[in-house]
Amino acid sequence: xxxxxxxxxxxxxxxxxxxxxxxxxxxxxxxxxxxxxxxxxxxxxxxxxxxxxxxxxxxxxxxxxxxxxxxxxxxxxxxxxxxxxxxxxxxxxxxxxxxxxxxxxxxxxxxxxxxxxxxxxxxxxxxxxxxxxxxxxxxxxxxxxxxxxxxxxxxxxxxxxxxxxxxxxxxxxxxxxxxxxxxxxxxxxxxxxxx
Length: 195
Ligand SMILES: C[S@@+](CC[C@H](N)C(=O)[O-])C[C@H]1O[C@@H](n2cnc3c(N)ncnc32)[C@H](O)[C@@H]1O
Known about the structure:
Keywords: Cobalamin biosynthesis, Methyltransferase, S-adenosyl-L-methionine, Transferase. By secondary structure, the protein is of the alpha/beta class.
């Protein structure tokens, strides 16, 4: 098995990657998964599955449950399927806009929101409507504008345990004089529970 551990945070380099499709980097991914509070048998939706790194981790964390992955980019869908095969994981990968696909999916224990293009508020409202009571939602945002709309949606939905965390990861790089830390762009992460 490629990842024979219980803990999330699979190294990025273990995934198939392409230039065109983004990936949620391992450190950010591990934090997002911890906030989703998953257990075996849980069901989950990954909105904007990109390279499929979160989809794969959702499958490993919810063994025996059902995972649905959505992306409107054909290349992302193909890459996600490739990575699922690589890790021996199984999810239903659906090509389409979250706004069109979500209404057809069942209620789940956890929703990861990684892409909200088109209408952030609508995607978050639909995502939250798919949560079982006590279910968890995690929304990753990079743009301040997306964060603003996401927060407005979360406040209107009257979710419980709302937490906002900004994460700035720095990674070491060797330079001629030693090792320096290089910061990546911050990720703003909203997490909450359906009351
Ligand atoms: C930052 S990437 C997510 C990376 C992914 N979590 C991973 O682990 O590789 C965001 C993805 O969301 C998709 N996306 C954005 N808005 C979407 C929408 N409204 N419906 C479906 N997919 C969407 C994009 O095509 C992109 O692949």
